[in-house]
Amino acid sequence: MSSQKNATLGVIIGNRDFFPDKLVAEARIEVLDFLKELNITPIMLSDTDSKLGGVETFAEAQKCAALFREHRDAIDGVLVVLPNFGDEKGVAETLKLAELNVPVLIQAYSDDLNKLDVVNRRDAWCGKISVCNNLYQYGIKYTLTTKHVNRLQDETFRKDLLDFVGVCRVVKGLRKVRIGAVGARPTAFNTVRYSEKILQRNGISVTTVDLSEILGNANKLTADDRSVKEKLEKIHAYTSVGKTPSDKLVQIAKLDVVLADFMEANALDCTAIQCWTSIQQNYGCNVCTSMSMMSENMLPSACEVDVTGTLSMYAMQLASGSPSALVDWNNNYADDDTKCVLFHCGNWAKSFLPDISISTAPILGTTVGTENTYGALDGRTPAMPLTYGRISTDDCKGVIKAYVGEGELTNDELKTFGNRAVAQIDDLQGLMKHVCRNGFEHHVVMNASKTAGILKEAMENYLGWETYLHS
What we know:
Layout: E1 8-13, H1 22-37, E2 41-43, H2 58-70, E3 77-82, H3 88-98, E4 104-108, H4 124-138, E5 143-144, H5 155-174, E6 178-182, H6 196-201, E7 205-209, H7 211-219, H8 226-238, H9 246-265, E8 270-273, H10 278-282, H11 288-296, E9 301-303, H12 307-320, E10 324-333, E11 336-344, E12 357-359, H13 362-368, E13 376-380, E14 384-394, E15 399-410, E16 419-424, H14 428-437, E17 443-447, H15 452-462, E18 466-470
Parallel strand pairs: 1-2, 1-3, 3-4, 4-5, 6-7, 6-8, 8-9, 13-16, 15-18
Antiparallel strand pairs: 10-11, 10-17, 11-16, 12-13, 14-15, 14-17, 15-16
Helix pairs in contact: 2-3, 3-4, 5-12, 5-15, 7-9, 8-9
């Protein structure tokens, strides 16, 4: 499942009088066509608002900034286009006056060797350095392209722009995300401790609810309630129920109804749920199926009240537009130092589990009774791309920190139960040293994408979170 909102970008076309104006006029037409092709909505001056629609003078900067402020709520980021040297102060003043606080991508056109005469030369190579220098002086964060200069239609820039849109989604989403913490952290899981205060300082809100409220409201429902019947239909449409007894399916459905109501009432983007072991002992089933369905529907849900775990899931979902899953760094894979086993009882999104079915949780069953663990999902993840990572609050330092990287999920043989996958990662042993030395959790998040670069740019450059990119 993929969810990609149409992006809206403010566009500044730089200009400088010493250089050919025709390059600005040509670039404006090219930019409009290019963004339309990529389904990106531009907010930019018309060619009647300023000289050829470019920005050079302070008056033009004021006019462009006013336009951006008018569309403040819609603009996800700003694209700066330099068809010639461009006026660095014009770009910087526009962004300063607009006060958007969104990511900024700087593109500069490349020159043709046979067009370095007075009427055709661009000098955007030099102009880009000047623009970046001014943005640095103004304290405005910005993103660079893979190549210092290129044309809009170059494949490298096309990827740069689409990655930048991903950066915009991550930044915008993480600055206002709302997380639901359902129940208390299981006492045996000190590893998932976190700081609500550090998260709130970064715009991330946590809404808590006692698990007894959720279970109490679930117990008030019956199999005859329309909401429960509708949830049962959705469960049957979502997965094979295997040998799950009908009364257990009703329990799962009732719990799902209450969790959905809690999320809607509090406008939550994701949840972290106490699933070990109170739900099994006091309610009689696992919540994995509900968590999987939520994650598949782009409402990430993490177990063991791992709040920064579900925050990591949400960040990766924003970067890729596809569901994420919370997993354990769980086992070595024989003697292969580049591979490991990823595992959890059974709450991964359906996108990772083509052979999905409702089952039980054997490990939990040894202490709470297997009959009380129906709702866990069983399934093996096949080969697919892998981005992995983790966001954590470092309470001792008072900061948010993260690590991200890329690898592959493989089809290597794996005989076990639950949700399971084999990951191959270059210098895996070095990565594990980084995880252990820096006090990260045993939980990590996986996403079927290659978006580590997007996440690092968003989290480190724009959000100010120390982010390690493993490579």
